[in-house]
Write a structure and sequence with these properties.
Blueprint lengths: L1 E3 L13 H31 L6 H30 L6 H33 L7 H20 L8 E4 L5 E3 L6 H37 L8 H38 L8 H12 L1 H12 L1 H23 L26 E4 L4 E4 L3 H4 L3 H5 L9 E6 L2 E6 L6 H9 L31 H18 L12 H6 L4 H38 L4 E6 L2 E7 H26 L1 E2 L16 H13 L4 E2 L3 H6 L2 H27 L10 E2 L17 H24 L2 E2 L2 E2 L2 H25 L5 E2 L1 H10 L8 H4 L1 H14 L3 H8 L4 H7 L10
Parallel strand pairs: 10-11
Antiparallel strand pairs: 1-2, 2-3, 4-5, 6-7, 8-9, 12-15, 13-14
Helix pairs in contact: 1-2, 1-8, 2-3, 2-4, 2-8, 3-4, 3-5, 3-6, 5-6, 6-7, 6-8, 6-17, 8-9, 12-13, 15-16, 15-21, 16-19, 19-20, 19-21, 20-21, 24-25
Length: 802
């Protein structure tokens, strides 16, 4: 599609009519504006709404960034050229135009390829990616794209004007073998291979879905997991890929025609249309998100509503009368069966219940706090099935919560079920130590949701009208299935957001030290006594492997944690629910969290036992054992500074004694060993709790989840603290290491193959008794010469098999 290596037209004759240039300018300008606005909107939504910030959506963000850059850099020069009816820029601008359009185009198609692969491993292999995986993949995408687009800058092909002379690209028409080889490999690496990978991935995805439809035994687990949420997401990405290829294939075909010598049939008109169609791909992707992703639609609506509410407030700008109750500006559906929805969210350290999404909650802070303005000494009268109770006017909870606070005065405020980010914290006063099913907390949530909805609708708190805590919010559900569902979601979120990232941080730091210390040879120790040499790097590699196995153990326990009890209701039969309810709940939770939650295949087991959390706690107990060993080793190796082993120099973080000046202690090692001890204790409690599933219900639920979450958070936080304040600053005391190694009697082990065990033992015992060196003793006993000792006793040769 190229005409010349120059950057200006060689003739005053225009390639198109004035009207055509105006039409082209209008078209490319519209594409640029739509692409800019739509992709900026995607960036705003991603940054503003936490629910959109998932590892998968990070790829959508990456594509929006590349499309946004095309809208800015890839459209501007072409638009001006359309207005001026010729290319008016210099050669450097032409190179930049060709480079930037190629770079951002390759980034887009490679991002779509990675998205197809992500769907493939998720649907076919049931594996979930994390942010580390996503960031690494995005880095590779940009490096790969830069490699291809940077090649013409280094002389492998070049950037030049296209035949329509409104933009630049690589030189498709060049017959130079060097340039032709680039074109061939460029199409192979940036079009055919990515398209082939996408076809392979989606072929397997649709095949897997089709096969699962035929397997009746998997209907309650895999079909919901794949055919519902995963199928919808895969379909959206498939539409994105198809639309992208529809726009870019014509341009690729025309470029190939030019490459293979058919440039005579590629007129300026034939070349400009595919070029503009290809660039239009930057504008429609956000539209696909909004049409096909309910999550994006909801976030967009929330964003627009928030703007509208702020505008209304700025216009209104007057104080409210005392008798006025602020009514939240929302629209409630009046269809039969519609009811306020209960959303359960989880903090990184506890179970959390909130009323609405974070974003809609921000719409009207004043309405949330209106009741709180009432005096804390005033009460309203509410009833439960046992009678009337006084409920503080400034609280959203109701009679059942108040009665529970009267019956379970155990532990105080520190034992409460905390609420995410402290939101509505005062409205959830119940402690962990309550009924073993968590019923009181479930009703606490139901009452808060009910009264919050009543307040939003302008009703009277505590009236249970128009939203009843049992009839509408609880809606025939049971604490027996909702509470264990919350337990599993909370545990999974804590593991993925705190524990595994913390262990990964520690693993990476220890691995760095193992590589740093690989050439430092030291004496080994068994039974706390001298042993044969090893490298300090080898010693640390053992710690690295322990942490690696720790992460694998945690991950291996997660498939059972991903099974949700929701839908089992009271005893596991699903009484009072509708067919498909359990599957829909699991699919929706999976969509919200980005984790592969599924409905439990057997609800009786899910309610009556908590073996999954016992298993997870056991895995964390093993992690605690590993961290205890690692921390103690590092602490002892760093003992001293003059009277201990002193092989490691640990970071000095704070004073260590109130009476001994200058003393510094290994505080991080001590802290993580205490954490390990606490986790071991937590595991005992979880083990006892898990064993108390009597008949159709386990009644240790609050205690179990309290300890599981506590263990996960402690281990995750302690791993990060230990890494940042100790591991990364560890240094090897090579002088001390060399001294201890050279004085060790166990180097005599190297002589076993040459003089036998008995003679080697006599050398060691004699040297120890006389206080002489091994070499001196061996020569004195006449077992070998000085040259033989130096040849056979080399610590660096004792680090592995020969």
């Amino acid at each position: 599609m190229n005409s010349t290596n120059g950057t200006e037209s060689d003739t005053e004759e225009y390639l198109f009519s004035a009207g055509t240039y105006k039409l082209l300018a209008c078209t490319i300008g519209t594409i640029g504006i739509l692409g800019f606005c739509n992709n900026v909107l995607i960036l705003v939504l991603y940054c503003k709404f936490k629910s959109l910030r998932t590892p998968t959506n990070l790829f959508l963000l990456n594509k929006s960034v590349s499309d946004l850059l095309v809208s800015v850099f890839g459209v501007s020069f072409t638009f001006v050229s359309c207005v001026k009816r010729r290319w008016v820029w210099d050669s450097a601008t032409c190179v930049w135009d060709g480079f930037s359009n190629s770079l951002f185009g390759i980034v887009s198609i490679m991002t779509l390829t990675v998205l197809a692969y992500e769907r493939y491993i998720r649907v076919v292999h049931a594996k979930v990616i994390d942010f580390t995986w996503s960031w690494r993949a995005i880095t590779y995408i940009w490096l790969y794209s830069l490699a291809w687009t940077g090649a013409p800058l280094l002389g492998w092909n070049r950037y030049t004007l296209e035949k329509h002379q409104l933009g630049c690209s690589v030189d498709w028409a060049s017959k130079d073998p060097n340039d032709a080889s680039f074109i061939l490999l460029f199409f192979l690496g940036c079009l055919f291979v990515p398209v082939g990978m996408m076809a392979y991935c989606y072929g397997h995805i649709f095949y897997t879905i089709r096969m699962l439809r035929c397997i009746q035994d998997l209907q309650t687990v895999q079909i919901i997991k794949v055919l519902r949420y995963e199928k919808k997401v895969a379909k959206m990405f498939f539409v994105m890929i198809s639309a992208f290829l529809i726009c870019w294939i014509p341009y690729a075909v025309v470029s190939l025609l030019v490459t293979y010598g058919y440039k005579d049939i590629v007129t300026p008109t034939v070349s400009v249309v595919p070029s503009f169609v290809a660039r239009s791909s930057t504008a429609y992707n956000p539209m696909i998100y909004f049409f096909m992703s309910r999550k994006f639609r909801l976030c967009l609506l929330q964003l627009l509503c928030a703007r509208l509410v702020r505008l209304q407030r700025s216009i209104k700008n007057r104080p409210l009368a005392n008798a006025e109750r602020p009514i939240r500006p929302i629209v409630m559906s009046q269809k039969d069966g519609d009811r306020p929805k209960k959303k359960v969210t989880f903090n990184t350290s506890s179970i959390v219940f909130i009323i609405t999404s974070d974003d809609t909650e921000q719409l009207d802070v004043s309405s949330r706090s209106s009741t709180a303005r009432a005096s804390s000494e005033s009460y309203r009268i509410e009833r439960d099935t046992f009678g009337e109770l006084k409920v503080p006017n400034d609280k959203y909870y109701g009679a059942q919560t108040v009665r529970s606070t009267m019956n379970f005065k155990i532990g105080g405020v520190t034992e409460r079920m905390p609420v995410i980010a402290g939101k509505l914290d005062d409205h959830f006063p119940l402690v962990v130590w309550q009924t073993g099913s968590g019923t009181q907390t479930n009703m606490n949530v139901n009452e808060v949701i009910s009264n919050r909805a009543i307040e939003m609708l302008g009703g009277k708190l505590g009236s249970k009208d128009p939203v009843h805590p049992n009839d509408h919010v609880n809606k025939s559900q049971s604490s027996n299935d909702t509470f264990p569902t919350a337990m599993h979601i909370a545990a999974a979120k804590e593991v993925h957001e705190v524990l595994l990232p913390g262990l990964q941080t520690l693993h990476d730091a220890l691995d760095g030290k193992a590589k740093e210390f690989k050439d430092i040879i030291k004496i080994g120790r068994t039974h706390t006594q001298d042993a044969v040499p090893l490298s300090l790097g080898q010693e640390f590699s053992g710690y690295v492997q322990q942490v690696k196995y720790s992460m694998l153990r945690i991950k291996s326990a997660m498939p059972r944690v991903y099974e949700l009890a929701a839908g089992g209701t009271a005893v596991g039969t699903g009484l009072n629910t509708r067919v498909g309810f359990a599957e829909k709940v699991a699919a929706r939770v999976s969509e919200l969290t980005g984790l592969p939650f599924v409905t439990a295949p057997n609800k009786f087991e899910a309610l009556a036992a908590h073996d999954a959390l016992v298993e997870l706690s056991g895995a964390m107990n093993t992690v605690a054992c590993s961290l205890m060993k690692i921390a103690n080793d590092i602490r002892f190796l760093g003992s001293g500074p003059r009277s201990g082993l002193g092989e490691l120099i640990l970071p000095e973080n704070e004073p260590g004694s109130s009476i001994m000046p200058g003393k510094v202690n290994p505080t991080q090692c001590e802290a993580i060993t205490m954490v390990a001890a606490q986790v071991m204790g937590n595991n005992v409690a979880v083990t006892v709790g898990g064993s108390n599933g009597h008949f159709e219900l386990n009644v240790f639920k609050p205690m179990i989840i309290k300890n599981v979450l506590n263990s996960a958070k402690l281990l995750g936080d302690a791993s990060v603290s230990f890494t940042e304040n100790c591991v990364v600053g560890i240094e090897a005391n090579t002088e001390r290491i060399n001294k201890l190694m050279n004085e060790s009697l166990m180097l005599v082990t190297a002589l076993n193959p040459h003089i036998g065990y008995d003679k080697a033992a006599k050398i060691a015992k004699t040297a120890h008794k006389d206080g002489s060196t091994l070499k001196e003793t061996a020569i004195k006993l006449g077992y070998l010469t000085s040259e033989q000792f130096d040849q056979w006793v080399k610590p660096q040769d004792m680090l592995g098999p020969k």
